[in-house]
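request received
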Amino acid sequence: MLDNNQLLRFTTAGSVDDGKSTLIGRLLYDSKSIFEDQLQAIETTSKKKGHDGVDLALFTDGLKDEREQGITIDVAYRYFTTPKRKFIIADTPGHIQYTRNMVTGASTANAAIILVDARHGVIEQTKRHSFIASLLQIPHVIVCINKMDLVDYSEEAYNKVINQFEEFSSKLLVHDIRFIPISALNGDNVVNRSENMTWYQGAPLLHTLETMHISSDINKVDARFPVQTVLRPQSEAHRDYRGYAGRVASGIFRVGDEVTVMPSGFTSKIKTIDTLDQTLSEAHAPMSVSITLEDDIDISRGDMIVRSNNKPEPSQDIEVMLCWLNNSPAKPRAKYSIRHTSNEQKAMIKEVVYKINIESLDRNTEDKDLKMNDISKVKIRTTKPIMVDAYRENRTTGSIILIDDTTNETVAAGMIV
Amino acid sequence: MSKYYLNYLDELESEAIFILREVWAQFDNPVILFSGGKDSILVTHLAKKAFYPAKIPFPLMHVDTGHNFPETIQFRDDIIKDLGVQLIVGSVQESIDDGRVAEEKGKNATRNALQITTLLDAIESNKIDCAIGGGRRDEEKARAKERFFSHRDDFGQWDPKNQRPELWNIFNGKHFEGEHFRAFPISNWTEMDVWNYIKRENIAIPSLYFAHEREVVWRQDSWIPNSEFLILEDHEEIVTKKIRFRTLGDITITGGIESDADTLEKIADEVSGMRQTERGNRSDDKRSESAMEDRKRQGYF
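response:
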């Protein structure tokens, strides 16, 4: 691995039989990321179950219940590395009843792989997965048209799927969509270029993942620094040190910058940007640093340091695309704790504007219950202003979760409109 | 012109620091679970970075099985002195003496499962609300489903089917009296990432990780070190080999591999060519297909 190798997080959504587990198994196997003892364990299980050959899909099985039922229930994380990049796969189940897990996996992803069976073309599930990728603003979407071996590796079949996909995806907000014809089972265009599809001029999947440009996915314009905690060593060497610890959410901070502390509105200048290793002249997302200011102002967890010439909107009334994550439906006008970066307030869902039918993508203004896996546009009122950006501008300062204080569970995730 | 993106090790480091600061901000009484193995040493190193120039603001806790490598205990005591933090020790021997747990019998007896009781007792008696561990998702299939902030009920149990969703970088550590959390700042690191980072940062680790001559016996496909706890079978023979350990656990269950790797560079090279997972040399994981999941449900690390 070279020093400038980046980390790419991608999500794969799919359900039984679409070849998702086989594809992941293939990526791991062909990139030599499966160890011998793991392979042996899979071989033993394959034999026990009476499968022909080694079932690569078994590699992604996790918990006892999942192995018994042969399905993925929860998000599982897989890792592999090539000489060019380190990859984290958020492997999520694709069935409609697991929408919340897809949303979870998508929340941190740079790229999404959407699998389409070449025989069936674009189906409801494809639309649902693409909608979630668009809703969660995953910057890059790769549509893998799988099982090309079952349509005689036909270019016509491939083009037909592309046309179907482009017809509905024009309504979605995804900037980078690519298409790759593959056979996960046989390995065509996964790691190695397919000899069966010489008509395809593009790169195989792994090469695409290794080379896609991701450094511009981070918002470099709006400087935002949510304060996690205050560092006060009170030691001999650092008696007066008062550092604000946090991770740069977006943008770039430089020593000497004019900054404003939200929500108090006090202004100061950045004095130092510190880490254990060195004192820096600038910090950018997603670096974890400690910032000190020229002036002594009262700052604590939940506050946000921003550049004075570019401030987020303090707001008590926010509109949010909300995904309900919990078994218990939302209680009308109930109060929840809302978390936004390091800030926590109380909040109330004032109004459900509409619910999205995630099969047809239609808006439903009649049914306004918020049940598990529902995605709805809602209006939320908070007890104190929070410093919001639109989610499409900023995934960190544009996202919230709701916590039910009676159970302490995370019940909903929202993207600020 | 700077590049304005991080390489993968810097991004993993930044993520871990973020998690450690969230733990400090969200809990009253966290500890780092310190075993003397490379993963808990790494977490401790990252905690040093997270709170610099302040000291690590919480104690380290060691669950002492009594079946230690002497080198590990020495290393632990040195690091405590160096950091100037408090050490809490939970003793499995005391749990046995108090009748809280019973020692396993037979040749393959270990104190591995016994640690669960000692760990949960220590968490309860010290009123710990978050225990930070060095668990990684690449280690084992049950760990692949683990959250960064992982809830434990008032019996210390993990319910893998009913975990809180974790989205973006917003972590929910809210809990009721008696419940606690486990936090895993290096969830996203692989074994290779750990070694590359240790090499880059030149982090001190116990000598056991480097190739050295040692008396060992061949058992369950690896070299088990000779110790006062070893019971030899008739056909077994103690030999001297040049070995090193890939992971560190109890001296009774940690198998070594034959190796000449005596520097961090050579270890990283060796690990990158390995075709077996690191836990392949741990007999605690070989007991059944769901050995780790079963122990984790009960409250294991």
